[in-house]
Amino acid sequence: MEDHEASELIHLADDLGNSVVLRVTGRESGGLTGVIEVGSYFVSGGIKTWLDAEDLTAWGKVLDSLAQGDDGAAWREGQRAAELHLEIDDNDRMHVAVVDSHSFLVTVELTIEVADDWLEAHRERLTATRALLPE
User: Fold this and answer.
1) Mean pLDDT to the nearest integer, 17-23
2) Which of 36, 3, 37 is nearest to 131 (CA)?
3) Other beta carbons within 10 Å of 105
4) Three-state SS for 83?
5) 84 near 73, Cβ under 8 Å?
6) Which of 7, 28, 88, 132 is the most exposed place for a label (fewest CB within 10 A)?
7) Mean pLDDT throughout 20-37?
8) CA 97 to CA 93: how far, in whole Å?
9) Which long-range contacts does 102-106 make (Cβ < 8 Å, 24+ apart)?
10) Which residues touch 86 (CB under 8 Å, ≥6 apart)?
């Protein structure tokens, strides 16, 4: 977990102080532990999470969907962990909703002005995170 890039599967942030980051914090049998951190000038917080190979495959499909021009996609919707809903508006801003419907019953929504190369950067993050999975 020494490489900063490898330790974050998701890093969506802008100059306005809005961010959603999924930071990998460790390895556990069969998967990875992590925390989803949400930050803005209005609200900030985090929730622990767990990742396995299926989660990473599903995240790759979300990236593929958005790269193909879909306006929105959901990751881990209706599953055992916090969900992410992503929607790109006409101004190329990302609307991100982090939904915890299992433990704290909280949803946080942010609008983030993402960089032009955010998709490529997240594909690299995905590859690096896959390499962290226990064998």
Assistant:
1) 98
2) 3
3) 8
4) strand
5) no
6) 28
7) 95
8) 13
9) 103/47, 104/47
10) 62, 66, 72, 73, 74, 75, 94, 95, 96
Percent pLDDT > 90 in the chain is 87
Rounded alpha-carbon distances, angstroms, from residue 26 to 8, 35, 40, 56, 103: 11, 10, 25, 15, 21
Residue ranges of alpha helices (H) inside 68-133 are 118-130
pLDDT of residue 1 exceeding 50: no
Helix axes 53-67, 118-130, angle to 10 degrees: 160
Give the whole-angstrom CA distance, residue 41 versus residue 16: 8
Query: What is the mean pLDDT of the segment spanning 60-68?
Result: 97
Distance of CA 103 to the CA centre of its chain: 18
pLDDT at 85 over 70: yes
Query: What pTM was estimated for this model as a whole?
Result: 0.92
**Residues 6 or more apart whose Cβ sits within 8 Å of residue 43:** 108
| Residue of 112, 111, 106, 124 lying closest to 59 (CA atoms) | 124
In order of start, what are the domains of the chain with their CATH numbers?
8-130 (2.30.31)
- Given a contact cutoff of 8 angstroms between Cβ atoms, the answer to whether 37 and 54 are in contact is no
